[in-house]
Amino acid sequence: MDMRQLRYFLTIAREGQITRAAKLLNMEQPPLSRQLKQMEDELGVKLFDRHGKGLQLTDAGLHLKKRAESLYSQFNETIEEMKELEQGVRGVLSIGAVFSCSSLLPRPIEQYRKKYPQVSYKILEGDHYYLGEQLEKHAIDLVFARLPFEALTDPKQLAIMPLPSDPFVVIVPTSWKQFEHKTSFQLEELAHYPLLTLKTDQTTHMHEQVIAACHRYGIEPNIICECSSVAISIALIADGLGIAMLPRSVMSSFIDPRVKIIPLSLDTLQSDVGIVWLKDHYVPKRSQYFLDTVKEVYGIE
Questions:
Q1: How far, in Å, CA of 175 to CA of 260, rounded?
Q2: CA of 56: how far to CAs of 30, 46, 48, in Å?
Q3: How far separated are the first and last CA of the chain, in Å rounded?
Q4: Which domain CATH number covers 184?
Q5: What DSSP designation does 264 have?
Q6: Is this structure's pTM higher than 0.85?
Q7: Same domain, 65 and 112
Q8: N or C, which terminus of the chain has less Cβ within 10 Å?
């Protein structure tokens, strides 16, 4: 069994059908079926069961898929490493970012471009769950995220570089005149206003952090909306639906005169931020140097 056959097997496993896999591989169906049969004969196991018009992995097939993905990833990483030895720092730096961390990207990217102009960029945005999947698939190299990183990825597989913590602030509608001259916000005051929080089915830590802070002060917050989108939350606040407590850097991505940022008097309430990547995997030089650039920009030792 060779790398070519592993690629055939992984394509069939992903597509669940010989016909679609053959089309993606630019080959005819009969030769691909023969290759699959040769693999099963060589290994002495059945890799797929027929399931209607498709194919379903057997237990042996599932085990091989896991090992094959690891081997194929190492194979591609080795090729990438050899290219870098010859060509230097170039290629595509693939970065993931949760929306609430997107404002952290421009400064390090601007600095990095001055040093490595031959590198281009691919930037994906999403929640922790989606970005964790992309990280495991090696579709991205690094992720800017709130911590903890709430993905299905085993935390033991992750390396994390913490960034400076981000203080919470209160976001209020400018149409609410009681906030017109307000320069700081006491946490206890949250109980008097309708509150919006950030929360998805997979990412709940920021929501829970706000609730826990309120409970420590004996406050039962009046939560009227749990929203998965920062942009929608800001739009709702701008229209006077309520207020929100968010990390300060989130607001760097918004210029909206209909909302006002008020510092929270409780400066111990911080949101932890960091860069996440897969450890025990080859990290391309372009990614290593980008991490070094982030350290310079944010003064990390």
A1: 9
A2: 19, 11, 5
A3: 47
A4: 3.40.190.10
A5: B
A6: no
A7: no
A8: C
